[in-house]
């Protein structure tokens, strides 16, 4: 069941570009500010209705600080993703989230002592080769893709360190940034149409639901398995970019994607054969 929750989270995120295409004329930073503020408002209402959702004994300075760090990583990844979507470059987001699982697997090995064997090492080499290929063919670094992937992988790894329950982690990831988000909204939204306000408010549940699902999944699912589930999201992105929005694909993107997908095959086959015992509980 925990694996199912994680899978569903990435399916939702895979379809999110459809929503953001409807508000592509709005500044990504303003979209982010609205998502943070309205998410915090929803969480405050939920907490008011059911105060027991937040375990006060877990609300230490360390846990709140880690939740804030996780929130920073999520917000940076998220604004990069929104930017890629609104400039009709879903392909960059797709490449980013194909790279992310390899980074997550590597972080699981580095910080949580999860098992990494030869196929996973080969997958990491292939990912690096994919980036080098992109640079050689397109004469530039895929900075947007790398930024999105690095920040999101860091978010997932940081979540593993937080000793808060599911609601507490999500609550502090948003509430600490709510004042800043409100300030940005009040100073940068004078020309927003009434209809767009509704769409901006809708970004809150659109993000809260998959974050909740992923947070529950992370309670019992090792990063090695999460790294495989993550491939659901960029596959949806790739399908949207190619078949729905007909985005052009550069040679660098094309061959980088081939190499990254090859790294998936190398990594996941061995992972399915193994039965890792390491499970990190957050509760």
From TrEMBL:
Annotated EamA domain residues = 4-133, 146-268
Entry's transmembrane regions: 36-53, 65-84, 90-111, 118-135, 164-185, 197-216, 228-246, 252-269
One Pfam family from the record: EamA
What keywords were assigned to this record? Answer: Membrane, Transmembrane, Transmembrane helix
Tell me a GO cellular component. Answer: membrane
Tell me what this protein is called.
Chemotaxis protein
Q: Which organism is it from?
A: Aliivibrio logei
């Amino acid at each position: 069941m925990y694996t199912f929750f994680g899978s569903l989270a990435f399916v939702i995120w895979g379809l999110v570009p459809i929503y953001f295409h409807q508000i592509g004329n709005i500044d990504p930073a303003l979209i982010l500010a609205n998502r943070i503020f309205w998410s915090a408002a929803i969480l405050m209402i939920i907490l008011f209705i059911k105060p027991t959702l937040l375990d006060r004994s877990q609300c230490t300075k360390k846990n709140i600080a880690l939740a804030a760090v996780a929130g920073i990583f999520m917000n940076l990844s998220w604004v990069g993703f929104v930017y890629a979507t609104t400039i009709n470059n879903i392909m960059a987001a797709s490449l980013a989230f194909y790279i992310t699982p390899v980074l997550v697997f590597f972080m699981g090995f580095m910080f949580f002592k999860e098992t990494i064997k030869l196929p996973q090492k080969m997958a990491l080499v292939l990912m690096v080769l994919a980036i080098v290929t992109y640079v050689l063919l397109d004469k530039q670094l895929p900075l947007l893709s790398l930024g999105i992937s690095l920040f999101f992988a860091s978010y997932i790894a940081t979540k593993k360190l937080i000793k808060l329950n599911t609601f507490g982690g999500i609550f502090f990831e948003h509430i600490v940034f709510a004042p800043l988000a409100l300030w940005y909204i009040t100073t940068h939204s004078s020309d927003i149409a009434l209809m767009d306000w509704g769409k901006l408010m809708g970004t809150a549940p659109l993000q809260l639901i998959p974050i909740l699902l992923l947070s529950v999944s992370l309670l019992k699912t090792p990063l090695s398995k999460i790294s495989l589930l993550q491939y659901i999201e960029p596959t949806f992105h790739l399908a949207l970019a190619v078949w729905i929005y007909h985005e052009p694909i550069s040679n660098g993107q094309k061959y980088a994607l081939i190499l990254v997908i090859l790294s998936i095959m190398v990594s996941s086959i061995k992972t399915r054969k193994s039965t890792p015992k390491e499970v990190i509980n957050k509760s």
